[in-house]
Every structure is written in structure tokens, then in C-alpha cells.
Amino acid sequence: MREKFDPVARRRHEGEKARDICLRPWKTAVPPVRVSPHTWYVGNEWVGVFWIDTGDGLILLDAGMPPQTYLIFEGMRTHGFDPHDIKLALLSHAHFDHCGGMKAVIEYTGAKLYAAAEDSEELIHPTELLKNDYQIVVPDAAYRPSERITLGSIGVEPVVVGGHPPGTTCFFYTDRDEAEKEYSVGIHGGLGLSKLADEYFSRAEDAFTARDAYRRAQEMVIGRPVDIALSFHPYNVGIVERSTAADGDWRAQIDPSAWRSMEEVRLQNLTDLEEASVFQRR
Ligand SMILES: [Zn+2]
Ligand SMILES: [Zn+2]
User: Fold this and answer.
1) Residue 282 lies in a domain
2) What is the CATH number of the domain that holds 113?
3) For the chain, what is the domain count?
4) Which pLDDT belongs to residue 2?
5) Whose atoms come closest to the Cα of 129: which ligand?
6) Closest-lying ligand to the alpha carbon of 236?
7) Cβ proximity of 189 and 169 under 8 Å
8) Which of 74, 207, 239, 276 holds its CA 20 to 30 A away from the CA of 268?
């Protein structure tokens, strides 16, 4: 039988992991994982970032939390890359575990930073983020609908879906192996439901609005054809486990059904959360 989604247990689990990542990032660090011909995951078991080697510089997607910055740079160097080659940085959303290290990354690399316009207010005049050690970072540009961000051989299509916070952005691009075979890669920007729990809402209307936005966000991208499904929280799709079982072969990440099932699990979790909620539509 399917295990019921328990938002309280999940939050406790994520809270403990998050503390380790903030204070002792080495405890949960994983070696960089190659996830497509030109993409690597680096970070922790809980959260991390991706870098893409475009042949004309690197694209960094997210920056993790401040203590993780050294993991990113060290991981790149152990694979023969120079962090100074990061030319573009793309942010998935304005939560501390994704944007906390961005200021250091941008200062060190001089990369151009893109973020969703919907989240720029929080990045520049933070409210939630101030509860952490967030250092303000000002995006250089906002994502524009159906406009690819191109560097070298890679053109990344950012799709702002919202739902998690309003600026949550998914990324889609085509990668090619040495035989020029193409793979569509999808990176989900944010699937966490913790901020949809009852305790965040005093009015039923606000809970309905946020939960409906989350459902719309998943439905907006669930039908995308994706060969390699990725998430900044690697357990969402088993990135590390797939890689370990295949001795680091990136082909282990190819699974054209993974994107849809990742989304379906979260939609089911949302339904569980709504059914258990004190806020009910009548
Ligand atoms: Zn988040
Ligand atoms: Zn997160």
C-alpha cells in the first residue's frame, strides 16, 4: 500500500537535514554526479546545484547554501573545471537552500545572474530570506517567456511555473552525447510542499490559492517529454542512487517516465495534504 504523505514528519526530516547542511555540509556531501553528457550535480544528499559544460563556459543552476559554495568549487575542480568559467547563473527560486550561496558565487565568478521576475522582490528586499544569513543578490536579468538562454552548445528554456514560491522555474534543454544522440533534460525548480501546510495560513482562502497554484504549476509541465529528469533536491528522483548503482554512468539517469512520475507523486502528496487539512471547501 502506498505510504500516506505526512507533512509533519517530512518537515521534521527536512529540518534535521537542513541543519546538517547549514552547519556541517561535509556530513551529507556527495561526490559530483554526472547526470547527462554535459551536466553534473554537486552538493549534498539533500540539496545541490547543477553545472553545465557548454563548451564555451559553464552555466550554474542554483548556488545552494553558503557553506556549500566550497563543495561546488571543489567538485568542479576535481572534474577538471574552473569555477571562474561560470558565465551564467540561473536561479530556480528565492529559497535559502537554493539562493543562499549566490552572492559568493557571483562575486567570485562575475557571472550574469538570471532569476524569475516574480521572485526578484524577495531577493532584493527579503522578508522570508532574512530569517537566514542571506546576503542580498540583485539579478541582472529576468526570465522571459519562451526565450532560451544560450551559451555555447546549450540553450536552456526557463519555464516559470510558480506554486512553490511564485518565481519557481523549471529548466529544459537538449544535450548531446559523443555520437550526437540527443537527450532532453528537465530540471524541476521546486517541488516541496512544506509551505502549503495549514500552519502557514490563517485564512482558508489563502490556503486554497496557494495549493491551487501548486497544482497548476505541476500540471503546466507534467506532459513535457523529458529523457533525463532532475531536481535540485536529488532524492526527488533518486539521482545519487541511480548513479551509484551504475558506477557513475550518466546513462543511469535516462528514464523517460521519471519526470511524469515525479510530478504525479507530488500531486498525490498535495491531495493527501488537502484531505488532512482543517481548511475544506464546502
Ligand atoms: Zn524551496
Ligand atoms: Zn529547496
Assistant:
1) no
2) 3.60.15.10
3) 1
4) 57
5) 1
6) 2
7) yes
8) 239
Residue owning grid cell 500531486: 267
CA of 190 to the centre of ligand 1 (A): 6
Range of the domain at 184: 7-276
Ligand nearest to the CA of 62: 2
Q: How far is the CA of 55 from the centre of ligand 1 (A)?
A: 30
Query: For residue 101, how far is its CA from the centre of ligand 2 (angstroms)?
Result: 13
Q: Is residue 148 part of a domain?
A: yes
Neighbours of 271 (CB within 10 A): 13
pLDDT at 131: 80
**Residue ranges of the chain whose pLDDT lies below 70:** 1-3, 14, 17-18, 22
Q: What gap in Å lies between CA 85 and CA 216, rounded to an integer? A: 37
Q: Outline where 159-257 has alpha helix (H).
A: 204-221, 239-245
Of the listed ligands, the closest to the CA of 193 is 1
Residue 2 lies in a domain: no
Half-sphere exposure for 110 (CA within 13 Å, toward CB): 3
